[in-house]
Protein 1
Amino acid sequence: MGGSTARFDEFDTVDWITDAARERERQHERRYEVGRTLLLRRAYDAVESWVVVLIVGVLIGVNTAMISIVTEWLSDAKLGVCSQGWWLNEKFCCWMHDESAPACPAWVTWDHYLGVDAAFVRWAAFVATGTAFATTCALLVRELAPLAAGSGLPEIKAILGGFVIRGFMGAWTLVMKSVGLALAVASGLSIGKEGPAVHMGCCVGNVVSRNFARYRRSAARQREIVSASAAAGVAVAFGAPIGGVLFSMEDLSSRFPRKTMWRSFFCALIATVSLQAMDPFWTGKLVMFQASYDRDWHFFELLFFAIIGVFGGVYGGLCIKLNLRVTAFRKKHLSTRAVEEVAVLAAATTAVTYLNTYTREDMGELLSYLLQECHDNTKGWNGICVPANAWRVAWGLAAATLIRAAGTVLAYGCKVPCGIFVPSMAIGASFGRLVGTLAEIMQRSHPDWRLFSQCAPDTPCITPATYAFLGAAAAMCGVTKVTVAVVVIMYELTGALNFLVPTVIVVMIARTIGDAIVEGGISEQLILLNGIPFLEEANDSEHHGDDGQELLDMPVATLMRGCDENMLVLYTAGMVLNDLWEFLRLSPKIHGYPVLDNEQDMRLVGYVLYMDIIAELRIEGLMHGDGVVIHTISFDPSHNRSTYNFKNFGHIVDTSPVTVRPRTSAETTVEIFRKLGPRAILVTSEEDGRLEGMLTRKDVLRHIRNQPDH
């Protein structure tokens, strides 16, 4: 499996074993508390986690609602302004307007605002405002918060897998991602806000939990909150709390115990309730494109459903492949011209999308129109339900599918906050509605065909809106390779239990076709391309390098860093304090050191962490400038004697680090990293315990991705 390792040094590795040991030590110390202190401590511990999750859920819901309100206003600002108040979007400006009337007099398009009546002026205003929004967003991201660019999902997967990138989930990143996302989505670029909603949710969870000592000092507990926040982010993006939990479990989290699942569900529930209370669309719906269906499907429609599933897989596979090429080109040639690239993309996208009725609309609104079932005596949006308009609708949807697909391939990954969920759903819905419209034309033109024998006479037989619904599910599955969560999310969006079987069918077809084109979803592929460290769950393909050699047949000695490769070690006899400070100063990025008995025998005694040494020096008053003269610092755990000029730090040495033998298979070592999560594994000889080398998670990933360590 090829892939870059360019960004490995940006990430620190979490040692889950050490983190768990320290948490157990803290729990053990609390056992000695007695009386009222013990009861209060237990009561506080019992409710603290739920209080944190409650606060996180509320803030995620409120933040999502505010972004939705601002985004809708900015999107409408590309088309015109309300004469009754510039702060009103088109829906609120025309709240009392009769929909049967031709136009809303309170809403003024930009050409009329300028005193002319020209389509070119409306087009120019649409392009200019969209480009201005996108350029402003790119400037804010470049100058103030570079980590706010992109969807954030690949990095979140890496963080939940045991890596840390500083500032990625900070308060400033949250603020700039929220502001930038509203501008980017409203600009008209073929991007969505649902992917970044996960990143923003994780930012909220991190910022809130860092104010509680229990989470600030425990990476494992922090991971619980981030997993719950990710679930809440998906939940508010789609109005699907159960789907959010399943998405976090299926696609994001490397570890998802039952306790995390309960807290994730509670967080997702609170977030969706908060969003419902805010009601940003004034429709009572959690998201703009919720829908419901009264009609059932017929068995012959499975043929058309299969076509939609195939499209979802083909779209997903080709979208991933083409977007990876665009991203590679962007990294190589446009890395210093990110703002100019975004401006050109926005100008080109808005200039083209304005010309098509279906792409001119915001993608959330478009989905709400395409997923809406046609009823008797209704024209639907833009006459989409009128039989006489069927061919015009079909051609418009075909063009919209191609335009949005091209725009999504080019825009996803540019240096603004951007997601791919809703663009993919809009593309799939457009194609699905196209298939449904063509099927409806066929059935109305040839009702006597044997294929349509199940259709009752003089009653609607085919419902194109349900085809749009299935197309949205197929396209989202094709690009993300998520199956169960997508089915549940689509069910929560519509409540269409009778369409559960068709949804499963199209999702499975899309996943199968997509895997045949490219393995892994777009997040996994971007992890490889962008050099993000992430140790994926075991599968048949990742255990083979390009040379075909399996990890199962390789000894760990072929992967490890040997002692002769400038490995930094400490000895039990220790060293003079000044030499120790110089030793630590020369290795600021090293997290820990093997402790050996002596330089001749090189037998492993234990492992000591850099931060533990610094903390112990601080406790002993041996920091620079303290004026204390100490001759020697020892790391011998076999005794604990200290004198005025001799200090033994043996008590901070871990005498039972994770070790393997040189002939242990690399596959076994990889499983140890996956299941136990140590930062490093030490390799010792079978005869006398002599240290032979050391292996880290990043070393394993470098080999799996077939990249040398430069």
Note: The longest strand covers residues 604-609.
Protein 2
Amino acid sequence: MPVEALMDDDLDELAWLNLDDVSQTLDVSEIEHLYQTLELEEARIEVEISDCVEHRNSVDTRLAQLSALHKSVEATSLLVKPMQRVIDATAGNAGAISGHVRELDQERVKLEHALNTVKETVELKSRLSELLTAMETRDVDRASLLVHEYKATSSDTLDSPFIAFASDSSPPRDIIAAATKELVERVTFMFNTAVESSNTREIGRCFRLFPQLGETQRGLDLYSEFLCAAITDKTRLAQVHTTYALRITRLFEAIASVVDNNFALVEQYYGRGYVLRIIQRLQMEGARRACLVLDFFEEERQVKRRLAQIQQVDVAKPRPLVKAKAEKDDGISDGDFKDIASILAEVVLIGRQVAAFNRFLESRAQPEALLLLGDPETQARVFLSTESLNKLVPLSSALPNTMHVDAQTGLVAHTQLTSRVEWLTNVYVELETFCVQRSMAKAMALDDTNELSGWDSAVISDVEARAQGPMVQTSSCVGDVFFVAKTALEHAVAMQQPRAVEAIAQCVLEAFGEFVRVMGQQAVEKWADVASVQRRILVALNNLDLANVYLQKMVDEVRIRLNTEWARLPETDKTKGQNAIDSLSAISSKLLQAQQHSIDQLSTSLLKPCMRSILQHSYRDIKYVLSDEEFNDVQSDNLFQQRFNLRIRKLGHQLRPRLLPSTYTLVVDAMCACLVYDWERAIRQSKFNMLGGMMFEKDVRFVQLCLEQEAGGVLRAKFAKLVQMARVVAEPAETSVAGVDKDVRALLANRVDVQPN
């Protein structure tokens, strides 16, 4: 085995061989294995010895170099020993010096601290001297500034041993406390004196001194009282107005002006967020005064009596239409209704102003409140406490103890105005509901359908009868009804109360249900002459069509108005309002149903007789069994098409001025249905040959084209059955049977050139 194999494979095995174990081995195979291993190890050692012998010269050279290097190292060691002794001594001296330096540094720090303390003590003594001088000379501004600077003095200075040199009598803390107390009393007295004398410059000066004395709450509260008194002076002129909405408007405008004019002043001298205390105080003052105005409004306008009067009237009960004037069968005269309408208008204006005032305060307070969310300590100093809020509420106001400052908006929640707004909303809903029902009933009762001009002559299919002068297509009730509904919805949106919008939307839905019923009743009402019947049906159709257009426009405009005015309201309130407005779209389906019912009535009374008469007149002396010569004559002079075109144009000239464009399209569609029904019946009873069938197919195409021109649209679906029948009777005899639908198979029996099967 080669040496490389031994090094790679048996080196590990040789490492654990022990002579005692080898001597105790008795197995022959193990002895042979050990013997082979020893021989291999011996061969490996011989190889290594041979290598060493071959490189002997280089090994000797390296040993000589090592010996010379050893001598050089010993000589260098002898030279380094003196230097090492010097270094050791120097290191010892450096350690001692370092310790002394550290001690000196500590002493220097103590000395600097002592010097600073002495300096601050000297400055404190100077300030105390200046403070005492300022107090003697009544220099309030200088004294307040010195007190403010004293607050910046560190507690170490006040507790230092040098503090005894700063004052000859009392400790500085006692001197500053006494001076601060006296200054607060002086500034408060000066502020009250300035308020009594209306010295706004002195008021502003005292207001700026309170934060220097650490009396921010006192300064803000006194200034708030001054601003509330100023609001009283500003709103005194509005008391002469008898319109309570104007009084509340003047009140809220005065408060808004005060907030905007003093916002920057408070922020400059007190800091961000402190203006919230003034806003909250002004909010409570505005709520108190607004409640007083509403109390006087309720009493002077006799709101309770009007509500009781309305509750006794069952306006929801349908009233029969009258031809001239609406009967006053509800016990409320026109004068009473006018008073109720004026109260309603004032309630809406008041509700609008209250909502706008709340949104204004929220826009000013909420950004400041968000700054204080992470600072509970400052928040507690700025916000009015529950005890303070309760003191601002009159004892006569029985409010639940739920008033608190909302940390998110910075405003007082559940003020006394909140309950009055709920009362105002209830009053509004009652008044608006009554006015909507009463006004719509009156608008429908005073409908001028019978007085419309241009409807004296009836529609006749065989006479060219045109109206004399302009023809009024719709009656007055449509515009009146939608004016009432839109006005009511805009009032509800202005109140900015979801409950009001939901209630008025439901009221409008019910009122429009009555409107649809009245329009449907016009279509079936019996009258003495034909012209009156046609007028009421056609006007009802126009009214319903126009009402559908007005409805969509009204819903869109009110929705846009709601999204604009309710932009700052919570999303839940906006969603409720939008859902209430969108629910009005359900009226559209009722209008379409009533419109279809009116068209059915029109078809029965006018369209079917007219179309039957036109068809009969057009088919006079007309046949569809034609020879070649007759076919050519009919092609050059088609009497059927000429007669039909003349009669249908006459009918269109009479109907078009009486109907709106969209309504006229629906009527033409109904005319097609009547014509197709009678025409199919007539064709099933007629005889044909192939040439006659071809002419019939041309007649069908011509009639379809005429009516499409009248309708302004495509009527292919209406004529699909007739076109199929025409194609059947126009095909050659040998192919006419193949592929014929079952429902027209009987028509083949009318072909004189087709043998019956």
Note: The longest strand covers residues 404-405.
Protein 3
Amino acid sequence: MSDTRRRVKVYTLNEERQWDDRGTGHVSSTYVEELKGMSLLVRAESDGSLLLESKINPNTAYQKQQDTLIVWSEAENYDLALSFQEKAGCDEIWEKICQVQGKDPSVEVTQDLIDESEEERFEEMPETSHLIDLPTCELNKLEEIADLVTSVLSSPIRREKLALALENEGYIKKLLQLFQACENLENTEGLHHLYEIIRGILFLNKATLFEVMFSDECIMDVVGCLEYDPALAQPKRHREFLTKTAKFKEVIPITDSELRQKIHQTYRVQYIQDIILPTPSVFEENFLSTLTSFIFFNKVEIVSMLQEDEKFLSEVFAQLTDEATDDDKRRELVNFFKEFCAFSQTLQPQNRDAFFKTLAKLGILPALEIVMGMDDLQVRSAATDIFSYLVEFSPSMVREFVMQEAQQSDDDILLINVVIEQMICDTDPELGGAVQLMGLLRTLIDPENMLATTNKTEKSEFLNFFYIHCMHVLTAPLLTNTSEDKCETGALRFMRRIIGLKDEFYNRYITKGNLFEPVINALLDNGTRYNLLNSAVIELFEFIRVEDIKSLTAHIVENFYKALESIEYVQTFKGLKTKYEQEKDRQNQKLNSNRFRRDAKALEEDEEMWFNEDEEEEGKAVVAPVEKSKPEDDFPDSYEKFMETKKAKESEDKENLPKRTSSGGFKFTFSHSATAANGANSTNSKSVVAQTPPTSSNGSSSKTTNLTTSVTATKGSLVGLVDYPDDEEEDEEEETSPRKRPRLGS
């Protein structure tokens, strides 16, 4: 459903009297067969799942608040609220509810006095089946009124009836007039009765009564009544605190009178709930749910009104970032923003997103950077709370700001480095601030909540930034402690944990920062003492050796082996040297082998000719193909000649190694002895370029001679497949030769 009029947020009241967000969806009213009645249905806008299915019970009291809210209780301890995006949608659903209950939609609270079920009529006492008759509001009737109010609290039906009677007769204002008279007469008994009466009216849990009690005209008298708790020897002085001690500070003058009144009212009602009223018992827990809702939605309205006042917020930020602003004024501004952000938690998610985006656009993060570096502990604490709201809202927004800031500022004044320094330098013995900042820092560098898109990877960008600009600040205390022989094992455990990840990203940072130097210095300074430090360092290097972490092994051997080679009571460091040399040999061998490597196609052709070519060149060490008709007795003779040639080649100078020609082949220079020349009287020296012989049209090889030479290097043997140029005379001799030499590999 795309109709925004029916778009709602579903809330439920938890055990701590806080509203929990159950999701956003679209509401409808329809007949549900299973519930056998008209019901409210809310389906999630994300996947269409059912968020709420609530039958419109004729006996349930629904309350309409602030034009976009409908609140009701499903059971004694289960309150629900629908917060509509638009007033029109709220009005439509309210009309449906009133239609089911037979009420006029103009009312703000539906009543179940007429349509109660037969079972409820049977359970209720006869005198409660009609409206409650209130005693005359006089001093001598206060005890009777107090007993009446107290007696109805256990019955939801009677609470509804009493609330309606109090509202219709304007009874609350009459009671408050009696309070003034009792206080003037110092009538302590009457004041104690009024305490019970006002407390009981609050427990009726009705928003319409709260509107009267918390108005500017009545609220201070309500607070006055609640000062005279019979359980106290002396009355409290709540009114004195609210009027004299508690001062309303306007960091920027608020010109909207309605907004000012709403702020005053919310503060006082919050004070009544948190300070004046005693902690409710299990029986009374649900009695104040509407009071909680009243405060909750007041805060929503305050934030919305402030956010809509563009001039107000702009002026606040201008003063907060102005260098001329004195410390006291800046402290007030920071405390304002702290409370402002706390109030914003009551907003619906889409409104909360808009709120924080507005703050970010106005420059809340640069402002925090200034105030978090101040000496005032109260200011730093408030700034930390604001920062926590921002990180919780969007870690990515904070990361983006920090990376952009690094392009214009030094590392020392970066916001994230200021956070790290505040965490490290926390003077609180309980480390409360440090623990809070540590949690925020962990959230910022947690790869799990970093975004990865097609055009940018936040994880790699921010982590690279963090290691370059921030890691040295974070690790400075660890390295300092290590160099001063303090907390060595703790620093080693930290480094061991990092190396244990076997992540080349961390390894590169360790080698680039030369972080092994203090570790090795600590080992050398420790001497021959066999203690925890010694064991921890040895285990660290042994892990690197066993796991064969090549980058760290090379770094250690190349930079520190001379200092470590004298340590012989363990074989760890010699083992690292061995690993290093083995890896170096492998790399050299691989490099040399690449010099002889040819493309795959040429190599396959050479191998094919090796097995299929049936020609030989006299005077060369040739392994000729075996003919099926020849006996195996010929094999030893040719093998001896082959081995003689091989030994001769092993003694050749390194100058005979192959060199690549401009044509892409390999150039070999061979020097053959007389015996190896197979009857030649002089030493033959030939420079030959490897070629791939063309094939004739019938698929046979053209008249070429292939020579395979074994070239032996210092380590391992490298075999090259070499084609020699055509030699028609040798080819003719080959054709007339009565005997073929056997192939070694056949």
Note: Residues 572-596 form the longest helix (25 residues).
Protein 4
Amino acid sequence: MNPDLRKERQTASFDTELLTNILDGGADRTRRRRELEALVLNDPDFKHEDVNFLSRSERYELAIKKSALMVMKLREFGIADPDEIYWFKRTCMGTYIAPIDLHYSMFTPTLENQCTVAQREKWLPLARGFQIIGTYAQTEMGHGTHLRGLETTATYDPATQEFIINSPTVTSIKWWPGGLGKTSNHAIVLAQLHTQGQNHGLHAFIVPIRQLGTHEPLPGITVGDIGPKFGYDEMDNGYLKMDNFRIPRENMLMKFAKVEPDGTYVKPLSDKLTYGTMVFIRSIIVGDAARSLARACTIAIRYSAVRHQSELKPGEPEPQILDYQTQQYRLFPLLAAAYAFHFVGAYMKDTYRRITADINDGDLREMPELHALSAGLKAFSSWIANAGIEECRMACGGHGYSRCSGLPDIYVNFTPSCTYEGENTVMMLQTARFLIKSYTQVSSGQLVSGMVSYLNDLPGQRIQPQQVGARPATLHINNPASLVEAYKLRASRLVEFAAKNLQAELNRRRSKEDAWNRTSVDLVRASEAHCHYGVVKLFTAKISEIGDPATRAVVNNLCLLFALHGISKHSGDFLQGGILTDAQITQVNQRVKELLALIRPNAVALVDSFDFSDLFLGSVLGRYDGNVYENMFEWSKKSPLNKTQVHRSFHKHLKPMQAKL
């Protein structure tokens, strides 16, 4: 064990085990997670090769091998709970991306939520038994986030009781779905439903794409891999072109909408019901943002405790770089954000499950808020995590740029989440639609509920700016609940500002669409403020649930840092809105620096509490034992370029050049 890390762990003011239990949702869940992880860590079949020294084809093949092994082991150990599957899968794959990810995360949940009872009985045993391996084919070459623009058609033929699935243009070719290129033999395809001469919009269909047994593409199906990407080397993101490919009528997912044998269309209770899988995935991305940022923070903070550099005082030993305030300022707000997103992710998952149960009972009242919340928080958390992972890489200096740090892989594998399941700016604009609608309701005298209930206070806030100035006297910068109020005021101010600007554009006789576009920057800012308020509110609510005083104190400091750092970064909003004064902003900035010093002694213990195995972390710099330099040297020796002392290019190119000069 590196002596610096040993010392950091010995001087922590709280018990990391208690905080790990809180993050896992209880001591029993921590125990069970570790049991499942041990099954993998002690299994020689799962000893990982370093992917950094493999070609893309080798990485894909190894990921398939591990995926197949994982499925067999899940069956052998009887693991069926979704959380337990996730823990086991995460440990099995280490830093690998699983080509069968979409089978678990989108294909199977869509079957569970959008099939009739008869369809569930037919398809779910096949999916759960991996007789069929599926993906979710929504995105096309020409359209992604704008779902109504998708061009793939499903035309019903009553004579044969079949749907004819067709890709009518180059831009309609399905493009990007994970696992589509080489792995899947079925896809849930989203297509425009045409029956009796009418287009009824997007619906989901189960489309077989490869022959069971031989895995050859079926006649009328053109399918393959889209080629190398920024990252995600193990994933066979694919293309799918369907040429008037026929499927039985029963392959349309018909829990909500259906087509009768004669072609009569029966519409759903709500056209938003089919978006359930996307809402589910967006809520999962918030948790992914937390985990990816937590991994990056773990690597950067442990390495910053091991790395000694430069001089704070002449003649004294080189300090740990974690002792520099600038390093703390780079990393600790990101650590606080990782904790915040962890708690928000858990809240989102619980909310999704609760509201899905309501939807299944026919209660759709909370659907609009769930859609808006999942879209906004997906964007908010993935933007911050994405920038934060890169910040962690840069905070590790030159060694952060090496693939051995694990940080480049975390970055390239997380960054697509800013785009998939809804491009982030578009997601923020979807949240804005809900905010403007809620604002309009309040303006007309109706009350709104849920996370937007702060808008109910708006009519009483329409007072002169000089009166607003009295409000900051109530701010207590050491009280998270007081900071929640400040964020609430910022959100309501920015929502009102965007709504009034939108109305002003409409008053200039602009069309609704044109007015919306001309106000879209303000609308995104309003959505960001709304999401920021939501995260601070949920983080603050978590503190009161923590019983142990020492643990509560350290989480309270993280919550304060998250909230105050946000105020510092967006001080213009708080000043312009008359929410805070200049003097209070100065106080906030000072308190942020004090919190860095308070968090510093617990920084290593706080990342240890995430309880990531070295296998899952996949980093030489972030190793639990801190033995960085010896292992970095050993890692470099494995480079394929080091297989021979003299590379063949010397004799082939350099030596002839030298002879000629």
Note: The CA atoms of residues 113 and 276 lie 8 Å apart.
